[in-house]
């Protein structure tokens, strides 16, 4: 039996760490729902800079995934870098679009090493820079920069689970969000 659009979640990425994070969250919140990834554009530069650009990319991915897969529910997980006068910070945004509303959450941040920040400021994308600096291969589909920076204490997939779970707060407790969202259909 095929899942209805109401019981399917489209993730705006084919990256296994992002799709698996959504599978983990929705397995707890909506057992039996089907979670599937789709390759969709973010609508922002390859390396998003700042919270606003990263959030926009996350929503574009969530909306694009819904369209691509014909789903009522979409998830966009977008990593970015916030550059400041004294350095740069790795961060992420999880966006959710659903029949009952749109919401998002910001994930935790971690300070990036100066060498990495300099290269990102010069226009390079974080993932390949991390691969080059660390000798890893495809860090963004594995432990990620967060895993490398924390010595494996926080892995990329776990970070996305945490951020997406935070974005689901209005779904879990709609009564606290003044009717802006409602629970998913059973």
How would you characterize this protein structure?
The chain is an alpha/beta fold. The protein has one domain (about 5-175): Maf protein (Alpha-Beta Complex), CATH 3.90.950. About 40% of the residues lie in helices and about 20% in strands. It has seven helices and six strands, in the order βαβαββββααααα. It has helices spanning about 15-30, 50-70, 115-120, 125-135, 145-150, 155-165, 170; strands spanning about 10, 35, 75-85, 85-100, 100-105, 110. Strands 1, 2, 3, 4, 5 and 6 form a six-stranded mixed sheet that branches. A hairpin with a 2-residue loop joins β3 (about 75-85) and β4 (about 85-100). α1 (about 15-30) crosses α6 (about 155-165). The protein is globular. Residues about 180-185 have low confidence and may be disordered.
Write the layout of secondary structure elements.
Layout: E1 8-11, H1 16-29, E2 34-37, H2 50-69, E3 73-84, E4 87-98, E5 101-106, E6 110-111, H3 114-121, H4 126-134, H5 144-149, H6 156-167, H7 169-172
Parallel strand pairs: 1-2, 1-3
Antiparallel strand pairs: 3-4, 4-5, 4-6
Helix pairs in contact: 1-6
């Amino acid at each position: 039996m095929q899942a209805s659009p109401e019981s399917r979640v489209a993730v705006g990425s084919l990256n296994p760490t992002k799709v698996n994070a959504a599978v983990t969250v929705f397995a707890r919140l909506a057992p039996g729902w089907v979670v599937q990834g789709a390759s969709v554009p973010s609508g922002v530069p390859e390396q998003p800079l700042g919270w606003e650009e990263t959030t926009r990319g996350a929503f574009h991915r969530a909306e694009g995934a819904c369209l691509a897969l014909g789903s009522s529910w979409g998830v966009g997980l977008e990593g970015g870098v916030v550059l400041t006068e004294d350095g740069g910070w790795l961060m992420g945004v999880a966006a959710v679009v659903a029949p009952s509303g749109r919401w998002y959450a910001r994930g935790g941040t971690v300070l990036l090493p100066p060498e990495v920040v300099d290269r990102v400021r010069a226009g390079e994308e974080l993932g390949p820079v991390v691969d080059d600096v660390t000798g890893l291969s495809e860090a963004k589909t594995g432990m990620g920069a967060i895993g490398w920076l924390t010595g494996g204490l926080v892995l990329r997939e776990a970070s996305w689970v945490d951020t997406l779970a935070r974005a689901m707060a209005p779904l879990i407790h709609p009564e606290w969000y003044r009717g802006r969202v409602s629970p998913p259909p059973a």
